[in-house]
Amino acid sequence: MADDILQRLLATPDPAAKAALVAQFVLTHEDPALAQLVPILAFLRWFDEPVVVALLPEAERLHSPELFARLTELPFVERVSYGYALHDLTRQGLLAEATIEQRISASQAADAFAQKEDSESLLETLYCTVLGEDSQTTQALLEESLFTLAKQDEWAMLLSLFAALRDAESLVGIQIVKPALLHWFAQGLARKVIGDLPGAVADFDRAIALNPEYAMAYKNRGNARGEQGDLHGAVEDYDRAIDLNPEDASAYGKRGLAHSALGEHQAAIADCDRAIALNPEYISAYGYRGLARSALGEHQAAIADYDRAIALNPEVATAYCLRGLARSALGEHQAAITDFDKAIALNPAYAIAYNNRGIATAELGEHQAAITDFDRAIALDSEYADAYENRGIARAELGEHQAAITDFDKAIALNPAY
């Protein structure tokens, strides 16, 4: 449902129709699966007048302080910036001009949020700073926030930040990027979020045409190309992004991942080394380097990388799954199963973890238990060719040859390269 609403928003040019869709989202906000869209919907202006009227039918007869109080009492507003809501409503004429006291309050809020390190606090700081009309501080904060979110691959948050950029430019008279450039880059990010990779690449192409030295556009086009399977094109984009900004750790990390996918594992390790030197807490870089090391047979070194990633964030299912694979490669199947168990506990819909646990379980001779895992992997992903092949092997071990042949047939149909 989240993807459906976002796709409809991108395809809806009429502001009133778009506002109605936003209101539809807000009024069904109890669905936790939609929470990921909150930053993107902030970008699309939650507080346009049609949305306010949809949420508060009595809005027209409320005085400004009452209107703002009612809005801030709504359960979803805690995820929308105080500063953003206040200055956007003020600009639309739904509230009176912000008072000196409100501006002081916003500045104090900005100082408080600036002490936090999470992405949403960056946005809150920015909005409250804009509300105070401190243009110099706003511009510096925008540049810092863009860099921070780009390093963390926080694309939805970055999209919201570009919305704040647009507000900052109009409210305090600063010019940071060309409006058309902003449009294409932000739309490219949105399309990537919903999986429209060709559309994202086309949007980043347009952004780059407007500014051939826009490092983030090259990096994000590289991300989209890599996900499409155009690995050489991705590496070219990362090369250009690094030329333009040699301090961007995530560009090195992503290029390392692309090198690994091309079988260039030593180059991948060198890129990940550089990414980690620039940002020792870049979790993904440890995972990418671990993948390259495992591909070279350096499984113990890979495990050390996955250990570090888990130490930085013990809630990342992928790190446990990768460490389990490295342990399996060393013959440590029981330890591997423990890692796959943890990955599944963190992400019960992780089909790859079920498949990998099934392989490790089969290595211990427990073929029926392995089949149960392969069944679950296939239930989660009906086109998972490896899971059919592995289930076929386990069934053959149990003497279920006809069922095994059926699984092998399916695996071949999905992947004729078998």
Q: Would you mind describing this structure in some detail?
A:
The chain has 418 residues and is mainly alpha-helical. It is 74% helix and 0% strand. The protein is built from 24 helices and no strands. Helix 18 runs antiparallel to helix 19 and helix 21 runs parallel beside helix 23. The longest helix has 18 residues. It is globular. About 2% of the residues have low confidence.
Alpha-carbon Rg, integer? 25 Å
Structural class label:
mainly alpha
Number of strands: 0
> Distance N terminus to C terminus?
36 Å
Q: For the residues shown, what is the average pLDDT? A: 78
* Net shape: globular
**What is the share of helical residues?**
over 70%
Following the backbone from N to C, one meets helices and strands in this order, namely HHHHHHHHHHHHHHHHHHHHHHHH
Oligomeric status of the shown chains?
single chain
Features:
418 residues; mainly alpha; 24 helices; 74% helix; globular
Q: What is shown here, in short?
A:
This protein is an all-alpha fold. Helix content is 74%, strand content 0%. It has 24 helices and no strands.
Secondary structure blueprint with pairings:
Blueprint: H1 2-10, H2 15-27, H3 38-43, H4 49-55, H5 64-72, H6 82-92, H7 100-114, H8 119-131, H9 135-151, H10 155-172, H11 179-193, H12 197-210, H13 215-228, H14 231-244, H15 249-261, H16 265-278, H17 283-295, H18 299-312, H19 317-329, H20 333-346, H21 351-363, H22 367-380, H23 385-397, H24 401-414
